[in-house]
Write a structure and sequence with these properties.
Layout (H helix, E strand, L loop, with lengths): L2 H19 L2 H10 L8 H16 L9 H24 L2 H27 L3 H21 L2 H10 L7 H21 L2 H63 L1
Helix pairs in contact: 1-4, 1-8, 2-4, 3-4, 3-5, 3-6, 4-5, 5-6, 6-9, 7-9, 8-9
Pfam family, one: MtN3_slv
Subcellular location: Cell membrane
Protein name: Bidirectional sugar transporter SWEET
Length: about 250
């Protein structure tokens, strides 16, 4: 492996690890509140499938010179499995059933790709077959935040679009795009180039709606203070009336 490719691969591994670890903030909140709130578990299942497929794709007998891809995505698969497990524990019954179904589908897809590519195909055909499936689900992973982006636009709030996950996702996609270009690997370039574009879009949304979210929170807090003050005054009014009535008597 050339020095430049190795250096970029290490950077890509580091940014990918940061992206995988970024949701820990969200999951601490889920564990603390014992609720998944409006967070979606679908992106984590899709990311898990993407990690499994890329880990398989990066093995030497599938595609040479991609072992760094296998090491980080293998680590990512373990991390994402932990997130999915936590999500299942605290999700409502209907959402839990949905996640179970998605996990079963993900395992079935990965098993099919792995078995067919290993036992049926060989050489360039094996790489092409695996690479096509990798790209399909890598694009699905990068596109999965679209639902959250729609929620941000609808609610004018970035509460449910974690900043660090979006930031590290962008850095990860850019790093792997560069790695794919150095390695002349279209199956790495295409989904990560698309992911870079979506990552930039998320950053733009965050810049637009972050300040509005803060202003909205301040209004809500001010409104709460006003309501609390009003309630306090209403409670005091009967007491004042009784005191005045006592003086009259």
């Amino acid at each position: 492996m050339g020095p430049l490719r190795f250096a970029v691969g290490i950077i890509a591994n580091a940014t990918a690890l940061l992206m995988y670890l970024a949701p820990t903030i969200t999951f601490k909140r889920i564990i603390r509140s014992r609720s998944t709130e409006q967070f979606s578990g679908t992106p984590y299942v899709i990311t898990l499938l993407n990690c499994l497929l890329y880990c398989w794709y990066g093995l030497p007998f599938i595609s040479p010179n991609n072992i760094l891809l296998s090491t980080i995505t293998g680590t990512g698969a373990i991390i994402e499995s932990t997130y999915v497990l936590i999500f299942v524990i605290y999700a409502p019954k209907m959402e839990r059933t949905k996640i179970f179904g998605l996990v079963a589908l993900a395992v079935a897809i990965f098993s099919t790709v792995a078995l067919v590519s290993f036992f049926v195909l060989d050489g360039k055909t094996r790489k092409l077959f695996t690479g096509v499936f990798v790209d399909i689900f890598a694009i699905a992973m990068f596109a999965s935040p679209l639902s959250i982006m729609r929620l941000v636009i609808k609610t004018k709030s970035v509460e449910f679009m974690p900043f660090f996950l979006s930031l590290f996702g962008l850095l990860c996609a850019v790093s792997w795009t560069v790695f794919g270009l150095i390695n002349s690997d279209p199956f790495v370039i295409v989904p990560n180039a698309l992911g870079s574009g979506l990552g930039i879009a998320q950053m733009i949304l965050y810049a637009i709606y972050h300040e509005r979210s803060r202003q909205h929170d301040n209004v809500v807090k001010d409104g709460s203070l006003e309501r609390d003050l009003q309630i306090t005054l209403e409670k005091q009014q009967p007491e004042t009336h009784q005191l005045e009535h006592g003086r009259i008597l």
